[in-house]
Fold this protein.
Amino acid sequence: MTNNTSRVRRAIILAAGKSHRLDSLRLNKPKPLIEIAGQPLLAHHLNRCAAIGVEEVFINLHHLPEQIRAFVGDGSRWKIKVTYKEEAELLGTAGGVKGFSEALRGDSFLVIYGDNYSTFRLDELIHAHFCHARRPDMSLVLFQQDDVSGSGVAVCDQNDLIQSFIEKPAPGVTTSHWANSGIYLMEPHLLDCIPEGTCDFGRDVIPSFLALGKRILGVKTQGRVYAVDTPELLHRTRAIQATP
């Protein structure tokens, strides 16, 4: 897989959001700095990016931005150049990526939701993207989840190309249990298909890509994605062990 990982040298880590559902814990820190398995979520993401040869990472900021800047700095600890963009108003997951459009043009790039913890290896996503018989415009990691009511859910064909995508489906709407991990590999021409302003991948952009006929590969994993959006989920995620 190493030959393919060398093709992806840039990533954006989405770190702007705030979860009001964690306010009762009085953490006084942004979600990407919550510690899981001994280190902040952002450190896990940067370690994984460094391990596959990513050279430049873009991080969007909004809630308590000075804490993220202080922890990550210029990225030299990971031998990665880090560029920040602060959002005066939250732009959503896709809007946050759109904000870095000019810097992201030219080559394939990773998108990582900064407030999740994943056991999935980034090189597996890159390998699947570049080795698929029909080169996709976008690839996203999917994992199996029993209750998908709070997730984006994909339905794939026999070639693992996504045919439909539903954000937070109502009961009975879909039988799929393949949930969106918030880890993507995108081709830069898709940046022109993301509208200006506030928009989200799950609710707005992935369905619009499919409507435009874009090929989106679902990379199915037996790994897990752990959220920290509520005190209960945070407690459950903190009980897991770190993975390489």
DSSP finds eight helices and 13 strands in the chain. The two ends are 16 Å apart (CA to CA). The longest strand covers residues 178-186. Helices lie at 2-5, 41-51, 65-72, 92-98, 101-104, 122-131, 201-211, 231-238.
